[in-house]
Each structure stands twice: as structure tokens, then as C-alpha cells.
Design brief:
Number of helices: 13
Strand order of the largest sheet: 1-2-3-5-4
Shape: globular
Largest sheet: 5 strands, antiparallel
Helix content: 25-40%
Radius of gyration: 22 Å
Order of helices and strands: HHEEEHEEHHHEEEEHHHHHHH
Distance between the termini: 43 Å
Length: 366
């Protein structure tokens, strides 16, 4: 049985006539634009009860599309906000032809008039039930009560880090034209029902070919404000050109936040003391002192995991953190050429996970 999640730009091979009809029907539905009235009804009038997220250029509502009762997330653009229309076009362009397990799935769009004949633009995405990584790392009291003290296990955080790196590797190295996300941060990472990560919000995305050959002066006026304070690469603030290494910097900061639980904008960090330097100063001997205390230590009950030293390719929990923090520090270096390549980041994190899982399996077999 075919599903919308399996649709791509190519017709699947080896399908019979009935499946072909279903494929074409789903493809037509996927490409169908929804009306303002349909979106209004699906979100109960864009009610505050259905508001699940808000950013500079748009508000996101949970909706249920009829007649199939499909759960969706509706991103309504704030067209009064300067740059919102450009953000809408950028997101449409970036999401039009990309397909990856760790990228949010777009269903369709809406460009119409509302009931008052004002311009209305929206993007409709697959609904992701577990919210954003921001909510999991920094839950409010209400969220903690509603989800039994939201905690992510070490292995879940490592899987999320790998998922995000995999998405970036795809965007940078495996698209027809490399895509720079430009706004990587926890609130733009969604957590799926099986705790896999989905990179979302391509409103600031840039195609690499579109910025090649432009003058440095042009980039100074358009790039300096791109991204979010704390995550934006330092060269962007000095008029530097958009690059894949800018995304790598943001990823490095996100990785450090994922395992320390500290935002880069925390009050403890000043101009001369950052999340990057905080972690770097703790390496290698104080690594466990900077680990997020909210991490659910599922491995603590497994004999030997924390005290085990590295032998024959195995890795202890402390060594696991040390290796991940070193990758995060390397990615978030101030000078671009000192940062890791995202391919090496992905390979390094996968190696850490494989070795850590090996230790867990060996311990459970004793």
C-alpha cells in the first residue's frame, strides 16, 4: 500500500495498475492547493488553542483537514512583517524538490485572500506530534507536568544529533544545488513520534549557486542579519558570505546545547565567555561536570558503562560525552577553516553511537 510519505518526484517501479491509480491520486492530492476557508475550518478559525509555534515571519497552527481527518501543521505568514513574503518564496523554493527522512515534509501551500480580502499565504506541513527540540531541552512547567518531566535519554540525544547532521549533509552535498539552511536552532528542529529529528523552517534558506559570484559588498547588506543570535556564524555578523560552514557553526552550537542543556544566550555567557569556551575549558577532565543534569541516565543501571575504560573499540559514557563535545567545539570554532566538514561530523557521531551501543550490548550479555 502506497502512502503520501513515500511519494517522490519519480514514479515508483514495479507497481501494478491499482497501485498506479492510488499513486496518481495521492500525488494529485499532494499538489493540490488548499483554500483559505479550508485552512480556517481545519484550525477552528486559527484559534489560540491550536497555536503550536510562532516565529518572526509566521505562526504555526495544528489543523485537521477534511474529509480524511489528516493532521497537519499550518504555517501562516505574517505578511505585515517586512521580509515575510521573501521568506515564503524561499521556503517554497527550498522545499519543492528535496526529500529526506530528516527534513520536515511539506504537503501543499495556500496563496489566496482571507474573508476580508487581505492577502493570505500559508504552508501546510505534515504534523509532528512531539513538538520542537527547544521544548524538550527547555520545557516550561506546564509541559513538564503534561509529559511527565520531559527528558531525553543520552542515546536519544545522540540519535537526534546524527539525524540533524544527516539532514545537513543531504542539503550541503546531495542536492542538485546545495542549500544553506541559515537558521539552525532547537526551535527549528521537530521531534517525531519515534524521536527522530526533522529539520524545519527554511524561510531563510539560500541556494549556494544563487550567492556565488556576488560581490562581498552585496553580501554585507543582506547576510549580516541572517540567523538567530547565539547560533549565527560570527562571519555573518561581519558581512561574510553565506556558506555551508555557517550552518556547521550553528550545528556545533546546537550540539553543545543538546548535551549541556544551556542556551548560547544564557545570562552566564558574556562577550568574552561563550557556550563554546565554556565547553572547551571543561575538556577533557571536567566533561561530566558540564553535562545536562536533566539527561535521563538510562545507562547508569548497566554495570561498567560509566567506569569502563576504552578497550578494543568500546567506549565509556564519559568518553562518549568527551567525543561529542570535541565535535561540537570543532564545529563552532570562530574561524571557518578550523571547523569540521559535515560529512566528517556525521561519520564521527555514527562511530560514537556504534561503539557506545556495543558497550551496552556487551554489558547486558554478562
Amino acid at each position: 500500500m502506497l502512502t503520501e510519505n513515500k511519494l517522490s518526484g519519480e514514479i515508483p517501479s514495479s507497481i501494478d495498475g491499482c497501485e498506479m491509480l492510488e499513486y496518481l491520486r495521492l500525488k494529485e492530492k499532494q499538489n493540490q492547493k488548499l483554500s483559505y476557508a479550508e485552512l480556517y475550518d481545519s484550525t477552528i478559525g486559527f484559534s489560540s488553542e491550536n497555536l503550536i509555534g510562532e516565529g518572526k515571519y509566521g505562526s504555526v497552527y495544528k489543523g485537521v483537514l477534511k474529509p480524511d481527518e489528516q493532521m497537519v501543521a499550518v504555517k501562516v505568514l505574517k505578511l505585515h512583517q517586512h521580509g515575510a513574503h521573501k521568506s515564503f518564496l524561499a521556503e517554497c523554493a527550498a522545499l519543492r524538490n528535496i526529500r529526506h527522512r530528516n527534513l520536515v515534509k511539506i504537503i501543499t501551500s495556500c496563496s489566496s485572500l482571507d474573508f476580508k480580502h487581505n492577502d493570505f499565504k500559508a504552508l501546510i506541513f505534515e504534523y509532528v506530534p512531539n513538538g520542537s527540540l527547544e521544548n524538550w531541552l527547555h520545557p516550561s512547567s506546564a509541559e513538564e507536568e503534561g509529559q511527565s518531566l520531559m527528558k531525553l535519554q543520552l542515546i536519544q540525544r545522540l540519535n537526534i544529533a546524527i539525524d540533524i547532521a544527516s539532514a545537513l549533509d543531504y542539503l550541503h552535498n546531495h542536492c542538485g544545488t546545495p542549500i544553506i539552511h541559515c537558521d539552525l536552532k532547537p526551535s527549528n528542529i521537530l521531534v517525531g513520534d519515534d524521536f527522530h529529528a526533522l529539520v524545519s523552517d527554511f524561510g531563510l534558506a539560500k541556494f549556494l549557486s544563487s550567492i556565488e559570484g556576488k560581490s562581498h559588498q552585496h553580501q554585507s547588506s543582506s547576510v549580516a542579519i541572517r540567523g538567530t543570535v547565539g547560533y549565527v556564524a560570527p562571519e555573518y555578523g561581519m558581512g561574510g558570505e553565506v556558506s555551508t560552514q555557517g550552518d556547521v557553526y550553528s550545528y556545533g552550537i546546537l550540539l553543545l546545547e543538546l548535551f549541556t542543556g544551556k542556551r548560547p544566550t544564557d545570562s552566564m555567557f558574556t562577550e568574552d565567555f561563550s557556550l563554546h569556551s565554556y565547553v572547551k575549558m571543561a575538556l577533557p577532565h571536567q566533561v561530566m561536570e558540564i553535562v545536562d543534569p536533566k539527561i535521563s541516565m538510562e545507562a547508569e543501571s548497566i554495570p561498567g558503562i560509566i567506569t569502563k575504560t576504552s578497550k578494543g573499540g568500546s567506549i565509556s559514557q564519559e568518553e562518549c560525552y568527551l567525543s561529542m563535545f570535541r565535535i561540537g567545539v570543532s564545529c563552532s570554532e570562530e574561524i571557518q577553516r578550523d571547523r569540521m566538514n559535515i560529512k566528517d561530523v556525521l561519520s564521527g557521531l555514527q562511530g560514537i553511537r556504534n561503539e557506545f551501543i556495543q558497550v551496552i550490548n556487551e554489558s547486558q550479555m554478562r
